[in-house]
Amino acid sequence: MSSIFQGLKPSLLWKHFEQILKIPHCSTNERALGDYIISTAERLNLSWKRDRVGNVVVEKKASAGQTEAETVILQGHMDMVCEKNSDVAHDFAKDAIKAEVKGEWVQAKGTTLGSDNGIGLAASLAVMEDGSLVHGPLEFLFTVDEETGLTGANKIESGFLKGKKLLNLDSEEEGAFTIGCSGGADSEISFPLKRKKQSGQELYRLKIHGLRGGHSGLDINQGRANAIKLLARMLWQALKKFSFELVRMEGGNKRNAIPREAWADLLLEPDQIQDLSIFLQKDFEKIQFEYKAVEKEAKFSLEKSDGQEEGPLTPESQASLVNFLFSLPHGVIAMHPEIKELVETSTNLAIIHTLQDHAQIICSNRSSVASSLEATRNAITALCELGKAKVNQLEGYPGWTPNLHSPLLKTLKEVYKRTFQKEPEVVAVHAGLECGIIGEKFPGMDMVSFGPTIEHPHSPEERVHIGSVEKFWKFLAAVLSELAA
Ligand SMILES: [Zn+2]
């Protein structure tokens, strides 16, 4: 049978990737793909084990003469993000992904391709199968459900791996080594509200909208505005000149997104509306000027509203809520002192939702340094103490603190330079990765992540660069050989 990947190199890797495309494997539905990995291991006479949640480990003995070498772990996640264009008929639970070669790239037809992390898995399977490689003892770790909850990594038991060096194959830029990620944890705040009787004024809605939002980690250093922060700022300023009464406030809807919209319902004397509108307009023009490079669609409106059931906040309660929101931190707290452009610590004021007697406020905090994450959360707790609010600091996930002096990194850099006559880039990401969790479970694990070039992962535009896959493989083979020496 002819393959769509005919002629692509390395053929063993592409052969396994083609098989992976035929097996549905959206997050939490990785069983069949695990079975394929196990059947491959059995065909090759390699031992394997599968844990309770479905993570699989395959072991391969060292190639001849390399038995003294240290064990190296190759790791990737089995699940893929399943997204398709609305005009595409595709059932991710049973249909094979239809891929095609388009110039220098492989892409799916209207769906995600699953090259994240399918190419990494295919590379592991190819290393399992290839008898010509030089390597020490190997462990291949295939985890479940990275994309929606890092569940597989979270549930690995401490005895599941023997190796102390791990190559994670889930990076998306050939020539860049990832050596760190942020840990994260949310702060859930319950801010007490006091209300009074209705006062019979008219209800207006002040709304901020049209902001870009984005990922609370990856986009936090893009200079984007936070709708809740802007709303709090405008209310705080307006309260110095006008006497309105706050009834409700809403903003943001996802913990891991920068809020794009927020609004507040205010009770006003009708004769105030014109002056307040002019005041807010002038204020907003300054904000638009501040954000002119990034928030071109930012808008505000002040319009009649309805549906008021609860009474407005008391003047004290309203002032303390607005003060609290205006002072809560949002954005980058610290940049990494050594790794260029890496955000080390940040916080996202993600959600506000007012109820009868309290407001729910959620901040998502991230840092690659555990103590810095804790300090950020403590600062939020301190503000809560000032504002007499309760805070629930949820348990989060651990970061992976970049180690620029890692012996594994040193070896990989040398091998890369020798193989391609070029310096690799060393990066870290301000988001959670499996390595953060694995590093915490297996203290002393030396880890580096790399992979081929994948563009637009998690979207139907996802594509993997064919030439970069060949380079990725060549590098992987050279690294395994070097680590066995
Ligand atoms: Zn991935």
Walkthrough of the structure:
This protein is of the alpha+beta class and 485 residues long. Helix content is 31%, strand content 25%. It has helices at 11-22, 31-43, 115-129, 146-149, 151-155, 227-239, 273-290, 315-327, 370-386, 407-420, 434-441, 466-484; strands at 47-50, 56-60, 72-77, 99-102, 105-108, 138-143, 165-168, 176-181, 183-192, 202-209, 245-251, 262-268, 299-304, 331-335, 343-354, 358-367, 390-393, 425-429, 446-449, 454-455, 463-465. Strands 9, 10, 11, 12, 13, 14, 15, 16 and 17 form a 9-stranded antiparallel β-sheet that branches. Zinc ion binds at residues 77, 116-117, 146, 170.
Shape: elongated
Head-to-tail CA distance between termini: 40 Å
Label the structural class.
Answer: alpha+beta
Strand content: 25-35%
Approximate helicity band: 25-40%
As a whole number of angstroms, the C-alpha radius of gyration is 26 Å
- Note the main sheet: 9 strands, antiparallel
Low-pLDDT ranges: none
- Averaged pLDDT: 95
Task: Report the count of strand segments.
Answer: 21
Cofactors and ligands: zinc ion
Number of helices: 12
List keywords for this structure.
single chain, 485 residues, elongated, binds zinc ion
What is the strand and helix layout of this fold?
Layout: H1 11-22, H2 31-43, E1 47-50, E2 56-60, E3 72-77, E4 99-102, E5 105-108, H3 115-129, E6 138-143, H4 146-149, H5 151-155, E7 165-168, E8 176-181, E9 183-192, E10 202-209, H6 227-239, E11 245-251, E12 262-268, H7 273-290, E13 299-304, H8 315-327, E14 331-335, E15 343-354, E16 358-367, H9 370-386, E17 390-393, H10 407-420, E18 425-429, H11 434-441, E19 446-449, E20 454-455, E21 463-465, H12 466-484
Parallel strand pairs: 3-6, 3-7, 7-19, 8-18
Antiparallel strand pairs: 1-2, 2-6, 4-5, 5-21, 9-16, 9-17, 10-12, 10-13, 11-12, 11-15, 14-15, 15-16, 20-21
Helix pairs in contact: 1-3, 6-8, 10-12
This protein binds zinc ion.
The site of zinc ion has 5 residues, from helix 3.
